[in-house]
Design brief:
single chain, mainly beta, 5-stranded antiparallel β-sheet, 3 helices, 23 strands, 10% helix, 40% strand
C-alpha cells in the first residue's frame, strides 16, 4: 500500500491541525517493544558529520555528509562547536571502568590516567576486558592526551584490525572525540599507543550511541550535500543523482514494514512492505527532507501525525 499525501492544501491543513493538537515526532513510532527501524532527519544538523568518525560536524549549507545519526532511539544532538559528549543525548551508560589491563609500555597510574613510555619494541595498549562492545553498534569515545612527546594514541572498539572500529591517531595534547563502530569479536575497548609513543591519557569515556546510523563509506566524492531552502529554511540532502549514497544496515523488518520519505515530489508513506536484513540506501533525491522505516503498520492517527511532520520538514 502506498499513500501519497502533502501535495494538496486540504490534506496539509488537516494533518497540520492533528499535529498541533497531538505533537508528533517519528521517535513515537519506535516506543513499543519490538519496534525496529530508524529515521534520518537532515534538519537535525547536530546529528550529521562530514567524516565517518564524527570528528567534523556539518557547519552549514553546502557541507558534504558522510554520517547521519538515527533518531529512532532517542539520540539527539544540538548543533554547535562544543564537545559532542555534551551535545549528544540518548547515550548509553559508561563502559570504561576498572579493572583495566595493560600491555608492554602502558602503565595504569591508579588515578584514572595511563602513561605510555614506548621504547620502539612494539605497540602498547590499555584496555577493558568485557566492556560490553557489540559488533556493529556505535560508540562515542572521548579521552584527553596530556604530556605528549612523541608517537600517537588512538581508540579501538572490538578486537580486530578492521578500520571501522579504530579511531585516527592523536599526535598532540588535547581532547579527542570520535564515533566508532564495534568490530571484530567485540567485547573489549582499547587505547593504543604506537611503539614510539611517549605521553599520557585521562578522562577516558566510552558510551553506546543507539540506533541504525547511515554513512557513506565509498569515499569523499560520494557524499551528498546538506542544503537549505532559501524561502522556508527547510534542510535537505542533495544527491548528484549519479553515485552519491548514504547506506544503513537494517535488521529483518518482516513483511509488514512501513517506509516513508519527504522529497521534492511530496510525501510518500508505503505500508505492507517486505524488508529483509541487509544494507539499504537512503532514497537518492535532489531534495531528501526526511526518510524512515519501521517494522509494522501504522494507525490512522500515526499516519496523520507522520504526514504532518514530513510536510513540516518540507517547509509546507
Amino acid at each position: 500500500m502506498v499513500l501519497m499525501l502533502g501535495l494538496g492544501h486540504s490534506a496539509t491543513r488537516l494533518t497540520g491541525l492533528a499535529a498541533a493538537q497531538h505533537p508528533f515526532t517519528p521517535a513515537a513510532l519506535f516506543a513499543a517493544p519490538g519496534a525496529l527501524g530508524g529515521y534520518w532527519d537532515p534538519s537535525s544538523t547536530g546529528r550529521m558529520f562530514q567524516d565517518l568518525k564524527g570528528r567534523v560536524p556539518v557547519a552549514g549549507p553546502g557541507d558534504p555528509v558522510a554520517l547521519i545519526l538515527d533518531g529512532a532511539q532517542g539520540v539527539m544532538a544540538a548543533a554547535g562547536a562544543g564537545p559532542l559528549a555534551q551535545r549528544l543525548s540518548g547515550q548509553g551508560t559508561e563502559l570504561f571502568a576498572a579493572p583495566f589491563s595493560t600491555t608492554r609500555k602502558f602503565a595504569d597510574n591508579g588515578d584514572g590516567s595511563f602513561t605510555c613510555t614506548g621504547d620502539g619494541s612494539g605497540t602498547s595498549y590499555v584496555y577493558k576486558d568485557g566492556a560490553g562492545i557489540t559488533v556493529g553498534d556505535w560508540y562515542l569515545v572521548s579521552y584527553e592526551v596530556f604530556g605528549f612527546l612523541s608517537g600517537g594514541f588512538r581508540a579501538r572498539v572490538g578486537t580486530s584490525a578492521d578500520d571501522t572500529g579504530i579511531g585516527p591517531w592523536q599526535v598532540t595534547n588535547g581532547t579527542v572525540e570520535v564515533l566508532l563502530r564495534g568490530d571484530g569479536s567485540g567485547g573489549n575497548f582499547w587505547i593504543e599507543g604506537t611503539p614510539a609513543t611517549q605521553g599520557s591519557v585521562r578522562n577516558v569515556a566510552v558510551r553506546n550511541v543507539p540506533g541504525l546510523h547511515a554513512l557513506q563509506e565509498g569515499g569523499d566524492s560520494f557524499r551528498p550535500l546538506l542544503m537549505q531552502e532559501p524561502s522556508s529554511s527547510a534542510w535537505y540532502l542533495s544527491h548528484d543523482l549519479v553515485d552519491d549514497r548514504l547506506t544503513v544496515p537494517l535488521p529483518d523488518l518482516g513483511t509488514q514494514a512501513t517506509e516513508w520519505r519527504a522529497d521534492e515530489t511530496g510525501v510518500v508513506i508505503s505500508g505492507g512492505l517486505t524488508i529483509a536484513a541487509g544494507l539499504r540506501d537512503l532514497p537518492v533525491s535532489q531534495k531528501l527532507y526526511a526518510y524512515g522505516v519501521v517494522n509494522r503498520a501504522l494507525t490512522a492517527a500515526e499516519t496523520a501525525g507522520l504526514t504532518a511532520w514530513l510536510n513540516s520538514k518540507r517547509g509546507v
